[in-house]
Write a structure and sequence with these properties.
This protein has 544 residues and is mainly beta. 9% of the residues lie in helices and 33% in strands. The protein contains five helices and 33 strands. The protein has helices at 400-404, 419-430, 498-506, 509-516, 526-541, and strands at 31-37, 47-52, 58-63, 67-72, 78-83, 92-95, 100-103, 107-111, 117-122, 128-133, 140-145, 149-154, 159-165, 172-176, 179-183, 188-192, 199-204, 210-216, 219-227, 233-235, 238-243, 248-255, 260-265, 272-277, 281-286, 298-299, 306-311, 317-322, 326-331, 407-409, 412-414, 433-436, 441-444. The strands form nine sheets. Strands 18, 19, 20, 21 and 22 form a five-stranded antiparallel sheet that branches. Strands 1-29-28-27 form a four-stranded antiparallel sheet, with no helix packed on it. It has a four-stranded antiparallel sheet with strand order 2-3-4-5, with no helix packed on it. A hairpin with a 2-residue loop joins strand 30 (407-409) and strand 31 (412-414). The longest helix is centred in the C-terminal third of the chain and has 16 residues, at 526-541. It is elongated and about 105 Å long. The termini are far apart. The model is unreliable at 1-27, 369-374 and 429-446 (pLDDT under 50).
Length: 544
């Protein structure tokens, strides 16, 4: 079928090179278009997981060294890359509208598409192996691992909001509609009700661990490991199908002789299943009863083993990654699209490099060698005295006769002075500097200024601090000190900002309504105290 990958076609053999030119394919014929590797990859680094972006024309890969790399489609140029988990293998990558979520055995990291971390969660009590979105909003994620607990983590609240107990550990999981389906290391398929957290069904699927699981509509498909006659573990050639409505196995299932390692439903065709083996063979299978199995096998030319694969939401492109460091793109056309309605990628601004002037002499200060193309007066240490002024004058030293009478109480020095000494010290502090606003220059004042010439300028009366004198015998007159209809707190301390903060919080409608409607049994609750103050202010604002 034109425009989508379906079970027809043949394989083009490619060499594992760093980048390969496009090879044109006919409509409806799937082939390998590109084979490339991560630029500037670390030694022994290989992609371990891959996931297509849900909003942009790109896909994301996680490596064995804990690095996340994104590639733009269809050019396959690197968009961004950063170190997410230092030294830990990234087991899974999920993408939502807000950013990229990566999982390793130690925890998860949620970052934006530029690599800036938003949150980090460390699962100290468990070894994580898989994760799945809770719903289509993609704000909560299920985390499963070796322990018999599945955690539900909220990305907005940055905390675990729920825990589910399972009979055994979890190797893979998928969340669809009203149930969470998990695969266990002992080969069972467990369905968990997210509302109650209870395990509803436990079905035997494989003799050993379940490797991959997927669900679409009412069909659950699994692949896993089995033991041979010698007791060795091999990939089970049978793909088991279950009906989620009756929770019974659908016979006879599917046979895939290379041994299925990973499987995923086609996003366009509801009954088409993509099955991939560990060595790179993959096939499109129809799970409907009575359908003719496809005889077309495709082979990803790799010298290693397949570590991950994903298909775009449009069904036009497949991405495979292998442990030899290569990434393979399969499609039926050159100009593929990842999503139906994708937003444009915001490319970073390219700043041209600036070549500094060379300085041959080591004794020349750095401010002499200015940077090319940048105009500035120089470093702050090179400014002249006429380009700046001292904002805080240096206080004059305290006279020795006052220091001789100082008595230390804890860390505070106390001196008993006479009124004359206070006036003299005040005049000395006022003689430090004056500022000429017209000339914008600092002019020092001579020391022989007469004290009678000092003029004290007070601010206008409405800006002065009013001292409230309380009289317990008579009724307090509020109008004398507050002529407005607004009420607040009286600041009795010199540098108290309690009233300013209270007024700021009071005029936030949402916060004021929440505090006024707050009720609790906590003895010391700041929200109750704040609600009481808001209630008194509401009552005081109506009475003048």
């Amino acid at each position: 079928m034109s425009g989508n990958i379906y079970g027809m076609g043949y394989c083009l053999h490619t060499q594992p090179v760093s980048f390969r030119k496009h090879t044109y394919a006919r409509d409806g014929v799937i082939s390998e278009l590109k084979t490339f590797e991560e630029p500037n990859a670390l030694p022994n680094s290989a992609p371990t997981s891959v996931c297509f972006d849900v909003n942009q024309e790109a896909f994301w890969t996680g490596t064995s060294t804990g690095k996340i790399v994104s590639y733009m489609c269809p050019s396959m140029d690197v968009f961004s890359s950063w170190k997410a988990h230092n030294g830990y293998e990234i087991k899974s990558v999920l993408v939502n509208q807000g950013g990229v979520l990566s999982l390793c055995s130690d925890g998860i990291l949620y970052s934006n598409r530029g690599g800036i971390p938003k949150l980090c969660y460390s699962a100290n009590d468990s070894i994580l192996q898989c994760m799945a979105w809770h719903s289509h909003h993609k704000r909560k994620v299920h985390l499963g691992g070796v322990n018999n607990i599945v955690k539900l983590y909220d990305l907005e609240q940055m905390s675990c909001v729920k825990e589910y107990n399972t009979p055994s550990g979890v190797t893979c999981m998928i969340k669809e509609s009203h149930m969470l389906v998990c695969g266990t290391p002992d080969g069972n398929v467990i369905t968990v009700d997210p509302r109650t957290g209870r395990s509803e069904h436990n079905l035997k699927s494989h003799a050993s661990s379940v490797c991959s699981i997927d669900m679409k509509d009412n069909t659950i498909v699994t692949c896993g490991l089995s033991t041979d006659r010698m007791g060795m573990l091999n990939y089970d050639t049978r793909i088991n199908l279950f009906d989620s409505r009756t929770m019974k196995r659908i016979f006879p299932g599917l046979n895939y002789h290379p041994g299925p390692y990973m499987l995923k439903f086609h996003p366009i065709f509801s009954s088409t299943l993509i099955v991939t083996s560990r060595t790179g063979e993959f096939q499109f299978c129809d799970i409907q009863p009575g359908s003719i199995p496809s005889l077309q096998f495709h082979k990803v030319e790799t010298q290693g083993n397949i570590t991950g694969f994903d298909i775009s939401s449009t069904g036009e492109v497949l991405i495979f990654c292998s442990d030899d460091g290569l990434i393979h793109e399969w499609a039926d056309r050159d100009n593929v699209t990842v999503n139906r309605y994708s937003g444009g990628l915001m490319n970073p601004v390219q700043i041209p490099p600036v070549n500094p002037n060379p300085v041959s002499d080591d004794k020349i200060p750095f401010n002499v060698g200015n940077i090319e193309g940048v105009e500035y007066p120089g470093l702050l240490s090179h400014w002249t005295s006429n380009t700046y002024y001292s904002a805080t004058p240096i206080p004059k030293p305290i006279p020795k006769e006052i220091l001789s009478r100082m008595q230390m109480k804890d860390f505070i020095g106390i001196v008993k002075t006479t009124p004359g000494e206070i006036a003299t010290n005040l005049s000395q502090r006022l003689h430090v500097r004056q500022w000429d606003f017209e000339n914008t220059e600092a002019v020092p004042v001579e020391d022989d200024v007469n004290e009678s010439e000092i003029v004290f300028k007070r601010p206008p009366k409405i800006y002065r601090r009013t001292l409230v004198k309380h009289n317990l015998k008579k009724k307090f007159d509020f109008e004398r000190y507050n002529s407005t209809i607004f009420s607040g707190l009286d600041n009795t301390l010199a540098n108290s900002y309690s009233n300013a903060i209270l007024q700021t919080l009071y005029y936030i409608p949402q916060l004021r309504a929440y505090c006024l409607n707050h009720l609790c049994d906590i003895e010391y609750c700041i929200t109750c105290e704040l609600g009481f103050l808001f209630y008194m202010m509401d009552k005081g604002n109506t009475v003048k």
